[in-house]
Specification:
2 copies of one chain form a homodimer.
Chain A (H helix, E strand, L loop, with lengths): L1 E7 L1 H4 L6 H12 L3 E8 L3 H14 L2 E5 L10 H8 L4 E3 L1 H13 L13 E3 L3 E3 L8 E6 L2 E6 L3 H19 L3 E9 L4 H14 L4 E7 L2 E10 L2 H19 L3 E4 L4 H12 L3 E5 L5 H6 L9 E7 L2 H6 L5 H7 L4 H14 L4 E7 L13 E8 L2 E8 L5 H20 L8 E2 L1
Parallel strand pairs in A: 1-2, 1-3, 3-8, 13-14, 13-15, 17-18
Antiparallel strand pairs in A: 4-5, 6-7, 7-8, 9-11, 9-12, 10-11, 15-16, 16-17
Helix pairs in contact in A: 2-6, 3-4, 9-14
C-alpha cells in the first residue's frame, strides 16, 4: 500500500514554516508498513493543489493532506480535494454546533467565515478536532483513502494519534518495527563500508545507515504481522551489527551518547563532577538534561582563564607555564583537581581551543578531554578542524561522555581522534 | 523565475528526519524574489528521483536538490540528476586532492567509496564544502539552473549562504532585503496585537511576526532594485516597530539575546562569572558560544547540590535551611559569592526546579535568576509551567541574559514572569 503526503501552505514554500507535519504523518504511516514514496508541498493555490491531487491519485492508495482547513479565503484544501473526487461540501450540523459552542465558551463572536470550517465532503468520516476549531475528515473514493488534516502541529499531531491511527489499524494487515544500533567514534562512511555487504543482501529486515551530528546509527527495520514476529526478525541482526561495529556501538535505541553514559553512571552508583574550559559548562549542561542526574552529578568548575584554572581548581602554575592551558597535562590536572575538590568518584575535564583565534601554539580545534578515576586518569586528544566553535564544543562533550561510557563498561578509554 | 526544491532521502519519507533543508533553501530563494511553487521529497530511489527531476525541469527555471551526495551506495542524486541532463560524472582532481588532504590531516584511512563524493557533473561549478566532505555543485542545462547540495543541515546551511547566495545574486535583477527587530519578554500574540494595524496596511515593505523558542521577532522585508533603496524603505519601519515594542526590543538582526548581552558586555569592558544550579552550566555554555567571550567571561561554579552551594560558593547554610535552594535569597547569595570568588564586575546565578520531580516546596518550573553588580543584586522569578526540563533551563538562561542586557542599557532589570 502506497501513501502520498501533500502539504498545503504558502508559508512552507517561503520557508517561514518547517514542515514538521509531513514527518509526523510519515512516521505514523511507516509504523503500519505503508510506503510513502512521495511528499509534495504546494502553496495555497487552487490550480497547483488540483494538479498535485490528480498526480497523487494516479500513483497512491492513500492521500493525506495537511493544512488549508481554516476559515480564511486561502484555505482551499477541502474544496479542491473533494472536488477532485467529485464530492460536494455539505454543512455538518454536529460540527457546526460544536464550533458555535466553542465560541460561546470563549464569549467571543463567531464571524460567518468560520462556518467554512464545518462544511465537509459528503459522506466523509469526521475526524473530530478536540485540539482546535477545524475538524479533519476522511473518505474513500475510486479505491483511494483520502485524509485531510489541519496544519497547526498542535492539532495535526493529536489528530494523527487519536483519529488517523485507528483508521489505519482497521485497514492494516502488517506492521513495521525498527530498532537502531547507536554508534559513536566512527563515521558513516566507515560504518557503511563495514556493513555494505550485509546491507545489500538484505530485504526484510533491512539495514540502513544514518549520520547524526557527531554520531551515526544503523537502523534495522522489519515488516511483519505481529510485534513479536518483527522483534524476532530484528534481534539476530542487532547482534550481528554489534559484532561488526564492536566497541563503537554504544546502545540500541539509546537517545544519545550522554544519556547512555549517564544511565550507566546512575546504575554504577558512582558520583561525578566536571572541570570545563573551552566547553564553558556544556558538559554539565548536557549531564543535567538527563532526568535523575541529580543523583550522581554534584557540580563542577568552569575555569575559562588560566588564572581560574589555578585559583578555582588549583592547577599548578608550572604545568600551565610549561605545557600551556591546552595540553594533556593541564586536562589531567583539571580532572584530578575537580575530582578531589568536589569529592566525587569520577571527574571529566575539557580544555581546548574552540576558536575563532588560536593561541599561537595549537591550531583551532585542538581539544584534550580527561576522565579522572580512582585508579588513574585517562586522556583523549581531539582535533576538529574547521568545525566552528559550537560544533567543536559539542564534539568535545560527546567524547567526554564516550570516555565515561567506555570506562563504565570496561572498554579501552583512551584513543586520539582527528576528524 | 520559478524554482523547485527536490529533497532526497528515505529518512525524510520515513519521517525520521524533519526537512529543515527545504525551509532553508526556500528562505534564500524568497530573499531574491524567486517563486517556489513546488517542493518534492523522494527517497534514495533512482526511478522516482529521475521522475521528479523530469517533472521539475518542465515547470521550473531553477532546480535545487538537497541530500544524496555522500559516499554510500544509496547516495544517487549526482548520478541521476546529471544523467537526466545528459552530463557525465567526472573525477574532480582538486576535490580529490582536498578530500585526500582532509583524511591525511586526520591520519585516518580513506576507504575507496569516499571518492564517489568527488565525481562531479562535467563542466559544473564546484560548491566547495568547507563544512564537510561532499562538495555541492551547480550547472546550467537547457536554460535550467541546477544546484546540488549535501543533506546535513550543518553543511547545507553554510553552502547556501556562502556558495549559493553569490550565484543567485549574479542572476537576480531585483532583490529582497529583510531586517528583523528581535524581541524578548513579550509573546508573539501580544506583539501581533500591538502591530496588527501596521502589518495589515503595508505591502512593500511588509511586516511579519515570528515566534522563536522563548523569543519573537518582527521581520521587515522590502523588494527593491538596489540594497540602498531597500535599506531606505526599511529604516523608518525599524524605528516605528521599536517605538511600538519599547524596551522589549533588544536588537536588529541580532542573533539572539545572549549574543546581544555578551556584545554589550564586551563593549562595556566589564567582566562576568556565573553560579549555576538547575541550568547545570548552560549559561556559561551559551556565553562561550559568543566569539570573544574570553575577554569578559572568567568562569564560574556549577553547584548542583546544596552541599556544593555551601562548599564551592559559600552560600550560608542558614539561608539554605530557612529559604531552601530554590529561593530569591539563595539566588542572590550565589550571584554575590560568585562575583567575589571569581573577582568579576558582574555575576549571574540561576537556581530552580527544572523537574521532573518537585522538592515538595516549589512546583516544577519555579526558577530564580539573579544578577550581582557593584551597586546591588537584581533578582527575577520565573514560573514556566509544563515546559519540560530543557525548555525551563533555556528560558532561565535567556532571562539571565536579558537581565544583563537591561542592566547594561540602564533599563529596569527586575520583573517576575509567569508564563
Amino acid at each position: 500500500m502506497n501513501a502520498e503526503i501533500i502539504s498545503v501552505g504558502t508559508e512552507l514554500l517561503l520557508g517561514e514554516t518547517i514542515n514538521t507535519d509531513a514527518a509526523a504523518v510519515a512516521q505514523l504511516l511507516s509504523e503500519f508498513g505503508i510506503n510513502v514514496y512521495w511528499q509534495t508541498v504546494v502553496g495555497d493555490n487552487r490550480a497547483r493543489l488540483e494538479h498535485a491531487v490528480q498526480v497523487a491519485r494516479e500513483r497512491s492508495d492513500i492521500i493525506i493532506t495537511t493544512g488549508g482547513l481554516g476559515p480564511t479565503c486561502d484555505d482551499l484544501t477541502k474544496e479542491v480535494v473533494a472536488g477532485a473526487f467529485g464530492r460536494k461540501l455539505v454543512l455538518n450540523r454536529e460540527e457546526e454546533a460544536r464550533l458555535r459552542g466553542l465560541y460561546a465558551e470563549r464569549n467571543s463572536y463567531m464571524t460567518e467565515n468560520h462556518l467554512q470550517q464545518v462544511y465537509l465532503p459528503e459522506g466523509c468520516t469526521v475526524l473530530v478536532n478536540d485540539w482546535g476549531t477545524a475538524p479533519g475528515c476522511a473518505f474513500e473514493a475510486d479505491g483511494c483513502l483520502v485524509i485531510l488534516l489541519p496544519g497547526p502541529p498542535m492539532e495535526c499531531g493529536p489528530l494523527l494519534e487519536h483519529r488517523v491511527r485507528p483508521l489505519l489499524e482497521a485497514r492494516s494487515d502488517s506492521l513495521i518495527l525498527s530498532h537502531s544500533v547507536k554508534i559513536f567514534g566512527i563515521g558513516e562512511g566507515t560504518m557503511e563500508y563495514r556493513l555494505r555487504d550485509l546491507m545489500n543482501e538484505m530485504t526484510n529486515p533491512t539495514l540502513a545507515p544514518y549520520a547524526k551530528e557527531g554520531e551515526c546509527l544503523v537502523r534495522i527495520t522489519a515488516k511483519a504481522h505481529t510485534v513479536q514476529e518483527a522483534e524476532d526478525m530484528i534481534a539476530p541482526w542487532i547482534e550481528r551489527v554489534r559484532q561488526e561495529v564492536g566497541e563503537f556501538a554504544y546502545g540500541v535505541d539509546t537517545e544519545n551518547i550522554q544519556t547512555c553514559a549517564m544511565e550507566l553512571l546512575m546504575q554504577s552508583g558512582r558520583t561525578i563532577s566536571v572541570a570545563e574550559s573551552c566547553t564553558g559548562g556544556l558538559v554539565g549542561d548536557l549531564m543535567t538534561n538527563v532526568p535523575g542526574a541529580s543523583s550522581v552529578f554534584r557540580g563542577g568548575v568552569i575555569a575559562y582563564t588560566d588564572e581560574m584554572k589555578r585559583q578555582l581548581l588549583g592547577v599548578d602554575a608550572a604545568v600551565l607555564a610549561e605545557h600551556g592551558a591546552v595540553s594533556r597535562e593541564t586536562a589531567i590536572q583539571m580532572a584530578e583537581r575537580a575530582r578531589r575538590l568536589l569529592d566525587t568518584d569520577l571527574a571529566l575535564s575539557v580544555t581546548g581551543l574552540a576558536g575563532p583565534g588560536d593561541d599561537g601554539v595549537h591550531t583551532v580545534g585542538t581539544v584534550f578531554v580527561a576522565l579522572a578515576a580512582p585508579e588513574g586518569t585517562y586522556v583523549r586528544r581531539l582535533y576538529k578542524d574547521k568545525w566552528g566553535r559550537e560544533r567543536i564544543k559539542h564534539a568535545a562533550a560527546n567524547h567526554a561522555f564516550d570516555m565515561l561510557r567506555r570506562y563504565l563498561t570496561d572498554l579501552p578509554v583512551e584513543y586520539d581522534e582527528v576528524c
